[in-house]
Amino acid sequence: MSIGNLKDYGNKGNNFPYQFKVLQGLQCVCDQLKELNIDTTAIEATLLDIETILQTVEINTTGVQRTPGFKRVSGINNTAGAGYFSMSFASVGTGNAIVGGIVLKPGETINFDAGALNNTLGAVAYDTTTNAGAELIIITLI
User: Fold this and answer.
1) CATH label, 68-141, candidates 2.40.170.20, 3.30.365.10, 2.60.120.10, 3.40.50.11930
2) Rounded to whole angstroms, how far apart are CA atoms 51 and 142?
3) Which of 74, 115, 120, 125 could bridge to 135 as Cys pair (CB 3.0-4.6 Å)?
């Protein structure tokens, strides 16, 4: 057992306290199981049945492919439409932009994420016309 046995953290290479507590915990588990005094033959047979079932079940690991979009805008008052999985707005110009009614200063970025696999976002308005030099990079994922 050598997890966490680092020279630059904790007890400077001495992992004994952690290892000792783990071993004490394992001993406690063993003692508790002995006190149950049950026949484990039936449990082992059930676990083998479960293992066999799990090995025969085909697990669907196909992910959802998302399509990214990228655009640079300036001098435009528009809306990123609804239905995206995520949106990011980066203010890359010299003037303030407005995203969702909030000022986005040069160098700031704001991200929106729908959160779950089948969720999507509503529309988000943006404006780069109110301040000279306002420019946005908009990245979407649909």
Assistant:
1) 2.60.120.10
2) 38
3) 74
Q: What global pTM score does this model have?
A: 0.55
- The per-residue pLDDT for range 56-80, each reduced to its tens digit, is 655 565 567 788 999 999 999 999 9
pLDDT at 80: 92
Q: Who contacts 99 (Cβ-Cβ below 8 Å, separation ≥6)? A: 89, 110, 124, 125, 126, 127, 136
Secondary structure class of 4 (helix, strand, coil): coil
Q: What's the gap between Cα 30 and its chain centre?
A: 36
List strand residue ranges (DSSP E) for 28-96, in order.
68-73, 77-80, 86-91
CA distance 99 to 21: 53
Q: Give dist(CA 111, CA 71) in Å, integer.
A: 15
Three-state SS string over 6-71 comes to CCCCCCCCCCHHHHHHHHHHHHHHHHHHHHHCCCCHHHHHHHHHHHHHHHHCCCCCCCCCCCEEEE
- Please give the Cα distance from 138 to 100 (Å, whole number): 13
